[in-house]
Specification:
The complex is a heterodimer of chains A (509) and B (328). Chain A is an alpha/beta fold and 509 residues long. Among the domains of chain A are: 18-93 and 175-252, P-loop containing nucleotide triphosphate hydrolases (Rossmann fold, 3-Layer(aba) Sandwich), CATH 3.40.50; 105-171, no CATH class; 277-342 and 465-509, Rossmann fold (3-Layer(aba) Sandwich). Chain A contains 18 helices and 20 strands. Chain B has a single domain, classed as ABC transporter involved in vitamin B12 uptake, BtuC (Orthogonal Bundle), CATH 1.10.3470. Chain B has helices at 2-23, 27-44, 51-76, 84-102, 106-128, 134-153, 163-170, 178-196, 198-208, 210-215, 220-246, 257-267, 279-298, 303-327; strands at residues 172-173, 176-177. The chains are: A alpha/beta (509), B mainly alpha (328). Chain A binds chain B through residues 64, 66, 86-87, 90, 101-108, 111-112, 115-118, 121, 125-127, 129-131, 133-134, 148, 150-152, 154-155, and chain B through 5, 8-9, 12, 15-16, 19-20, 22-23, 192, 196-199, 201-202, 204-205, 208-209, 211-218, 274-277.
C-alpha cells in the first residue's frame, strides 16, 4: 500500500537519526513483526498506533534490545548498526519508557537515574554521592522537575516516577526516546506537564516514538503517524492529512472475519446480572450493565480499560466502593464463595494461573468446584466423582483418554473446556469469560464458541471479555465497550462492527 | 569549588539520613520493641541494667550481628540463606580442629573462611545460575554442612583451643571487648558497602527491580552470587568468635542460629519484597533478640522457651509494621 518514498515525507530529504528496514520477528506460532520499516527524525514525535497485539510492544522491545529481530536492518544516522542487546541500544542513545517502570523503589531519585553508571568516588568502589546528586539535579532542572534528588522513589506517585524514568533516559544521553502510552496513568494536570516536557525535548532535538490510544494526543502531539496491524505497517500519515476515522479503519483493516456465526438471541429471559453504578478501587467507575439469560454479552475495550476489573468485581474478587451488583436478582455483597452460591462462574484469562490445578487430573479438576453439591456429607467417593467427570468429558467432548490424565498435558482448547466443565458441574448459570480463546488454535476456538452457544441455548447467561474484536462482533448478542474504567457505550447486534467498537474504546478529544 | 562541595557534605548527609529514616519508618517498630523489652526486663529482673550485664548483652550479640548483616543483604535480594547456622557450625569445627593441630589462629581462620567461601559459592550458584529457589537451595546446603560437621568430628567436641584463639572473644583493646571491635568494624564496612558503593545500589536493585539492573547493563547474576558469598564468608568469620566463646568445636554449636539471624532482620524492618532494607534496623533487631534472650536467661527461662519468645517478637514487630503500613 505505502510506497517506499512517501509523498508525505518532508520535502528536504534529511538523514533520519534512526531507520528500520524490513524488521521481522517471529514467536512460536505468531508473526509479531512482518517486514516493518520505520524512520525517525531528530526533534520529531512519531506516533505509533495499532490495536492490541498489532506489534507495537514487540517493535519497542526490538528497539531497546530486549528482543533481537529475526530479519531486517538498522541505520543510525545513515550508518548500518546492530541492536543485539540492551547495551547496543544504550550506545545508540535509545531509551524506552515502559508502562512498567524500571525503577528501584528503595533507592533515591538520583541513585535511580544513575543506576549502573554511578560516578566513581575517590576510593575504588565508592560512589561520589555529591556529584551524582548535582548531576541529577541538573538533568531535573533541564526538565523542569522540582523533586529533591534524595527523595526515595517508593514515595513518589506514578507521574513523578515517569518523570524520573525520562530523566534517567536523558542522563544516558538518549537521543531517541520511546514512550509507551505515557499518559495512560496520568491526570489531566500531569499530562500537561508531560506534554511541556516533550516540547522541551523536541527543541533539544530528541526524537520520540510515542505509542498512544488517544486520538486527541495523536493529533495534538504527533508530527507523523505510523499504523501497525497484525505485525505489518499498514499506514503512514501526517496529522494534517488524515482524520481519526481513517486511522481507526487502518487499525482494523479489512480483516478476514473468522467465519463464526450463531443463531442470535431474540427473546432474552430473566435478569441474570445487573450492575448499577459500580465503582471500585481497582480503577472502574460508575459501571452499569445488564446480562439476561440466553444472551452472550460482550465486554470490549483496550487492554487496561477495566474489563478484567469488572469481572473481578462481579465475582467478588475485588471489593467495590460504590454501586450495586445483583446476580439473578439477589445482591452480591460477598466474595467469590457467595458469587458461586448465587450461580456465577468466572473463567479467568490465565487458565494456568487461576483456573486449573495443572498437576492434578482432568477428573479432579472437573469436580473441584462442585464438591459440596456432589458430596454434601463431606465424604469423597472416587467412583461418583469419576462418573461425573466422565459425563462431562463426553458432554464437552474433551480430548483425553480418561479422567485420570493430568490436565497440564492437554491442549489449550481442551484445558479451557475443563475449566468450563468444572463450572457446569457446579451448576453455574452465569458465566463470565475473560479472554476465552487466548492461546487457543483456530479450530478449537470454533468449538469453544459452540460450547458457549450451547450454554446460553440451555438458559445460561454469558458475559464475554475479549480483545479480539472480530470475536465480539461474530459471537455476541450485544456488547458494552469500556474506556478508562467506564462504560463508554453499548452496541446492539446490528450496530456492532470492529470500527464502532474501536471508535468507542479509544480516547477522543 | 571542590572544597565547597566537601564542606557542603555534612548538611547533605543529614538530609540523606532523614530520607533514609523516612523510608525505613517501619524500623521504628523495632526500636519500640527494643525499648519496651529493656523496660520490661529493667523492672522484672534485678540486674538487667547493671553495666556488666549490658556489656554482656552487647558481646553476646556480636556473633548474631555478623550473621544478620549479610542476611540483610540476602533478604533484600528477595533471597534467604537457611544454611548460615550450619555453615557456621562446620566452620567452627574446622577452625577448632586446625587451631588445635597448628596451635595458631591464622591457618585456622583461613580454613573457616574457606568453608564459608565454598558454601557461599554453592548457594549463590544454585540460586543465580540454576534458578533454584533460595529456600530450597540453602535448605539443601544446610543439610550438607550439618552432616559434614558431624562427619568431621565423628559427633565429638574438639577441645584444647589455644589461648590465641580465645582472646578474640575474651580479650579487649582500649578497654573495649574484642568481639565488639570486630562486630563494629563489620557493621561500618557493611554500611559503607550498602550505602556508598555501586555494589550496594545493586543490592537494592536486585530485590527492587532486577529487570532495571539488567537493562542498565549490570551483570546481575554475578552480584547475586557475590551476596551469598559474603554470607558464607561472614559465617566463617563468625566461627572465630564462636570458637573463642565456647573454647571448643562442637558439631551442633550453632544449630538453628539462622533462625535468630532471619528473625533479627525481620524485626529490624527489612522486607522480604522489593529490596526494602535498613542496616541500622538490623542492628536494632539483633539487640532486641539479644536483650530478649538475656532477659529471659536472667529470669531463668529455658532456651527452648526463648525460641518461642523470639518467634513472638518477629510476629509482633511485623504486626506493628503492617498496622502502620495500613494507616499511611
Amino acid at each position: 500500500m505505502t510506497p517506499p518514498h512517501d509523498p508525505a515525507a518532508p520535502a528536504t530529504p534529511r538523514v533520519p537519526i534512526l531507520e528500520l528496514r524490513g524488521i521481522s520477528k517471529r514467536f512460536t506460532g505468531v508473526q509479531a513483526l512482518d517486514d516493518v520499516s520505520f524512520e525517525l527524525h531528530e526533534g520529531e514525535v512519531h506516533m505509533l498506533l495499532g490495536e492490541n497485539g498489532a506489534g507495537k510492544s514487540t517493535l519497542m522491545k526490538v528497539l531497546c534490545g530486549a528482543h533481537t529481530a529475526d530479519a531486517g536492518e538498522f541505520f543510525h544516522h545513515g550508518k548500518p548498526v546492530v541492536i543485539g542487546g540492551p547495551a547496543d541500544a544504550q550506545r545508540l542513545g535509545i531509551a524506552v519508557i515502559f508502562q512498567e517502570f524500571t525503577l528501584v523503589p528503595y533507592l533515591s531519585v538520583a541513585q535511580n537515574i544513575f543506576l549502573g553508571r554511578e560516578p566513581r568516588g575517590r576510593l575504588p568502589g565508592l560512589v561520589d554521592h555529591a556529584r551524582m546528586r548535582r548531576e541529577a539535579q541538573a538533568i531535573m532542572d533541564q526538565l523542569g522537575m522540582t523533586l529533591a534528588p534524595d527523595t526515595v522513589v517508593a514515595t513518589l506517585g506514578v507521574a513523578q516516577q515517569q518523570m524520573v524514568e525520562i530523566a534517567k533516559a536523558l542522563s544516558q544521553q538518549a537521543r531517541i526516546v520511546v514512550l509507551d502510552e505515557p499518559t495512560a496513568a496520568l491526570s489531566d494536570n500531569e499530562t500537561e506537564k508531560l506534554f511541556a516536557m516533550i516540547e522541551t525535548l523536541k527543541r533539544q532535538g530528541v526524537a520520540m516514538v510515542y505509542i498512544s490510544h488517544r486520538m486527541a494526543e495523536v493529533f495534538s502531539m504527533g508530527d507523523r503517524i505510523t499504523v501497525l496491524r497484525d505485525g505489518k505497517k499498514v499506514g503512514f500519515r501526517m496529522p494534517g492529512q488524515t482524520a481519526p476515522d481513517e486511522l481507526v479503519s487502518l487499525m482494523v483493516g479489512g480483516k478476514v472475519d473468522m467465519s463464526y456465526s450463531r443463531t442470535y438471541c431474540t427473546a432474552p429471559g430473566e435478569m441474570a446480572l445487573r450492575l448499577q453504578g459500580v465503582s471500585a478501587r481497582s480503577g472502574i467507575q460508575d459501571v452499569s450493565l445488564e446480562v439476561r439469560a440466553g444472551e452472550i454479552v460482550g465486554l470490549a475495550g483496550l487492554v487496561g480499560s477495566g474489563r478484567t476489573e469488572v469481572a473481578r468485581a462481579i465475582f467478588g474478587a475485588d471489593p467495590i466502593a460504590a454501586g450495586r451488583i445483583e446476580i439473578f436478582g439477589r445482591p452480591q455483597t460477598g466474595g467469590p464463595t457467595q458469587a458461586r452460591r448465587l450461580g456465577a462462574a468466572l473463567i479467568p484469562e490465565s487458565r494456568k494461573a487461576q483456573g486449573l490445578a495443572l498437576i492434578r487430573s482432568v477428573g479432579e479438576n472437573l469436580v473441584l468446584a462442585s464438591l459440596p453439591r456432589l458430596f454434601p456429607r463431606g465424604l469423597f467417593s472416587p467412583s461418583k466423582a469419576a462418573a461425573q467427570a466422565r459425563e462431562l468429558i463426553a458432554r464437552l467432548r474433551i480430548a483425553t483418554p480418561g479422567p485420570d490424565r493430568r490436565v497440564g498435558v492437554l491442549s489449550g482448547g481442551n484445558q479451557q473446556k475443563v475449566v468450563i466443565g468444572k463450572w457446569l458441574s457446579a451448576e453455574a448459570k452465569l458465566f463470565i469469560f475473560d479472554e476465552p480463546t487466548r492461546g487457543i488454535d483456530v479450530g478449537a476456538k470454533a468449538e469453544i464458541f459452540s460450547l458457549i452457544d450451547g450454554l446460553v441455548k440451555k438458559g445460561a447467561a454469558v458475559l464475554m471479555i475479549s480483545s479480539e474484536l472480530s470475536e465480539i462482533v461474530n459471537v455476541c448478542d450485544r456488547t458494552y465497550v469500556m474506556r478508562e474504567g467506564r462504560v463508554a457505550g453499548e452496541l446492539a447486534r446490528d450496530a456492532m462492527s470492529e470500527e464502532a467498537i474501536l471508535t468507542l474504546g479509544m480516547h477522543h478529544a | 569549588m571542590h572544597e565547597m562541595t566537601v564542606r557542603a557534605e555534612p548538611v547533605e548527609g543529614v538530609g540523606k539520613l532523614t530520607a533514609r529514616l523516612k523510608h525505613a519508618g517501619s524500623a521504628s517498630g523495632a526500636l519500640m520493641m527494643l525499648i519496651v523489652l529493656c523496660a520490661v526486663f529493667a523492672f522484672s529482673t534485678e540486674n538487667f541494667l547493671d553495666g556488666a550485664n549490658l556489656v554482656n548483652v552487647a558481646v553476646q550479640s556480636t556473633i548474631l550481628l555478623l550473621l544478620a548483616l549479610p542476611m540483610t543483604l540476602i533478604i533484600m535480594t528477595e533471597g534467604l540463606d537457611l544454611s548460615m547456622g550450619a555453615v557456621l557450625t562446620l566452620a567452627n569445627v574446622v577452625l577448632a580442629t586446625v587451631a588445635v593441630n597448628t596451635g595458631g589462629v591464622s591457618l585456622a581462620l583461613l580454613a573457616a573462611l574457606g568453608v564459608g567461601l565454598a558454601f557461599g559459592l554453592v548457594n549463590g550458584t544454585l540460586v543465580s545460575r540454576l534458578g533454584i529457589p533460595p529456600f530450597v537451595a540453602t535448605l539443601g546446603t544446610l543439610g550438607a554442612a550439618q552432616g559434614l560437621a558431624l562427619v568431621v568430628t565423628d559427633g565429638q567436641s574438639v577441645v584444647g583451643i589455644p589461648a590465641s584463639v580465645q582472646m578474640f572473644y575474651s580479650g579487649a583493646f582500649l578497654g573495649v571487648p574484642a568481639p565488639i571491635w570486630i562486630a563494629g568494624i563489620a557493621y561500618a564496612l557493611f554500611h559503607v558497602v550498602l550505602y556508598h558503593t555501586r555494589f550496594g545500589a545493586n543490592v537494592f536493585a536486585l530485590g527492587g527491580n532486577r529487570e532495571a539492573l539488567t537493562l542498565a547493563g549490570v551483570r546481575t547474576r554475578l552480584y547475586l552470587v557475590a551476596v551469598y558469598v559474603i554470607g558464607g564468608l561472614m559465617a566463617g568469620l563468625a566461627a572465630l568468635l564462636l570458637t573463642a566463646r565456647i573454647s571448643s568445636g562442637h558439631p551442633t554449636a550453632a544449630l538453628g542460629m539462622e533462625f535468630d539471624a532471619i528473625a533479627a532482620v525481620a524485626v529490624g524492618g527489612t522486607s522480604f519484597e522489593k529490596g526494602k532494607g535498613w542496616l541500622l534496623g538490623t542492628l536494632i533487631g539483633v539487640l532486641a533478640v539479644g536483650v530478649l534472650r538475656n532477659g529471659l536467661n536472667l529470669m531463668g527461662v529455658t532456651s527452648a522457651v526463648q525460641v518461642s519468645a523470639i518467634g513472638l517478637l518477629v510476629i509482633l514487630a511485623l504486626m506493628i509494621d503492617a498496622f502502620r503500613g495500613k494507616q499511611s
